[in-house]
Amino acid sequence: MRVVLKRLGYGALAILGVLLLIIVISFTNHTIKLKSELTILTPPGAMVNVNNHQMHVYTEGAGSQTLVFLSGGGTSAPVLDFKALYSRLSEQYRIAVVEKAGYGFSETAKVSRDIDTILEETRTALTLSGQNPPYVLFPHSMSGIEALYWAQRYPNEVKAIIGLDPAIPEVYEAYPLPSVGMMSLTSFGSTNGDYTLFPRDCGFIRCD
Fold it and tell me: Could you give the C-alpha distances from 116 to 29, 84, 111, 126, in angstroms and in order?
């Protein structure tokens, strides 16, 4: 042990000790902050039970036509992300923002994340929150695929699609699947509270 100490030097050990202390303090502070945030972060919309997990649907406005906003991958808070746009429309239209499983106030789902499941969860969440079709869909990014599939499968429920830089099927034909390293980082981010670097759901690409 003395030989090891001599080789490392007491200075290096002191630095390692300080780094370890910083990590412990940071983790403790993070845990405390998460618990305190739970008492003040209240979902602004309705929480509905879909496939045994809670989904958040935010609505405002009272128009006769319902505009449904669907977020893309990596949008940590869809309700806030779309606010600058839907707040300008809610005086004339009814607005509904669906937060997919793992996004915003919605819980992470322990069920398949294939496109059929995601679409049915979106439709069910809207129904349970009191919304009725036909809808005008506002899909962003990967939700463009969901919107197109929705219109194909349930044409009477989709009045129009207004894309917000939406993805199209051709994009995913050449879209690279996430690497093992990226999937590991995504899983790491999903277990460290609400402030994550990565989304807690891989959308239409299974990451389990």
Answer: 40, 30, 12, 16
